[in-house]
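Case study B.
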Amino acid sequence: MIGGGPVGEVAAERAARGGLRVALVEHERFGGECSYWACIPSKALLRPGNLLAAAKRVPGVPVGDAVDPAAVFARRDWFTGKGDDSGQVKWAEGVGIVPIRGHGRITGEREVTVDGGDVLTARQAVIVATGSVPRTPSIPGLDTVSPWGSREATSAEAVPGRLGVLGGGVVGVEMAQAFATLGAEVHLIISGERPLPRLPDFAGDAVIAGLREAGVTVHTGSGLDSVSAVDGGKELSLKGGDRLIVDELLVATGRRPATDGLGVETLGLEAGKPLTTDDNGRVSAVDGDWLFAVGDVTGRAPLTHQGKYAARVTGDAVAAQAAGEPVDSSAWSAHSATADHHAIPQVVFTDPEVASVGLAGPEEGKPHRVVDIDIAVAGSSLHADGYAGKARIVVDTERGVLVGATFVGQDVSELLHSATIAIVGEVPLSRLWHAVPSFPTISEVWLRLLEAYGL
Ligand SMILES: Cc1cc2nc3c(=O)[nH]c(=O)nc-3n(C[C@H](O)[C@H](O)[C@H](O)COP(=O)(O)OP(=O)(O)OC[C@H]3O[C@@H](n4cnc5c(N)ncnc54)[C@H](O)[C@@H]3O)c2cc1C
Ligand SMILES: NC(=O)c1ccc[n+]([C@@H]2O[C@H](COP(=O)([O-])OP(=O)(O)OC[C@H]3O[C@@H](n4cnc5c(N)ncnc54)[C@H](O)[C@@H]3O)[C@@H](O)[C@H]2O)c1
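Model:
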């Protein structure tokens, strides 16, 4: 295994559980991006502000005006262990994995060289889980101002007075929200009319409204022409002519697979490009059934939970292959990451939250029907005064099953798994009708959606 992030760790564990001896090579911290600079610290920074906003929506709850940044950072540090990965190393050893610290490079078939020295030769397979790295746009002056990436934002020790955020993807909106609630003056600069362009418009619109309510200034239809260091900060020249001075600039313009320095050229592949895989996790362009890849590096679904799913599938497939058992390539088998094509769940942890799975809207030429409603049920009105939320389902009318769902609103994240189950299980809507939501919960929205569909 090359890469000891969350995905590599799980693939290694499954392969070890399947009877293989597994060496896990990691050149930075066992636990990867997610544990120290991504999912975990970002959610720790967001939760207090979201909770404060929620408490303010229910009269009778005594709350203060603002979160305490020092306490928020301290709790974040508790979760990240300030980068101490000894617990992960102990865990790996405990499940029978041999952790090796160093940079792994593929130097031949089944061969990985660590730090240019020790050569590991796999009897069965090499699995790559090297993750992704930030994609930085070329903007004049950007390299002269030491911009923040997501690592600097999630590990910040102090709240900047003025923060510019470039990019309206998930990192951009989550970090804009977090730092606004921590007390920064935040400017979010996005190219489109709304953030989160891959989601239904109502999601981006609700998130923009939430950000503005939290005090964020959103510059839409914008971008950066240039950046320069000036007395007292960094000057941003926005497309259209506006200028801003900020103390820090977070660049959140996407990520690309981490295939540089991995030796993929020796296999005839191009560094910087994803390692494209089949559903068993086999790298498609490499013959011989020995090279597999999982997680962000594959470009399939750059999310921790979906990468770990692929890791379970591929770890088991590699163990089966090693045992001389057939690797099952059929859809929905234990060795196929079929859900990647149908149901990738994702939550954006802003206030309001956005929770989505499957299709965001109808596909052209397909028998798809969209139902959009407000989340306005007894459960939501009790949950928060003035609860504003929206829900969408996308239905395959021919098969009578759900193929997509999106929820926007406070605390909708916990609604998401019900939608994922309905899509993966291909539960007919006529049967879903009998899944009665408890009263009074936000889940009552399921009943309203089915009624609006015509049941
Ligand atoms: C700010 C932010 C917030 C996020 N929040 C969420 C969230 O809330 N939920 C969610 O599901 N996803 C979230 N993500 C995405 C999530 O972080 C990734 O999908 C996840 O980390 C991918 O796991 P991975 O193991 O594939 O890669 P990584 O976590 O990147 O791990 C790869 C590991 O491989 C190591 N490595 C790389 N090359 C080599 C080499 N040649 N030799 C040895 N080791 C190597 C790296 O050091 C690293 O430890 C977030 C991302 C960001 C940036
Ligand atoms: N809650 C979560 O699940 C979560 C949280 C954070 C990140 N992530 C994952 O991490 C990955 C990286 O997130 P991200 O937000 O960096 O990437 P992203 O691809 O989601 O968004 C990047 C955004 O930046 C915009 N952009 C690109 N270049 C630009 C430029 N020069 N000027 C202005 N805008 C520009 C793009 O149009 C896009 O909307 C994603 O795959 C995301 O799913 C997940």
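The CA atoms of residues 247 and 443 lie 43 Å apart. The remaining cases will be described in the next quarterly update.
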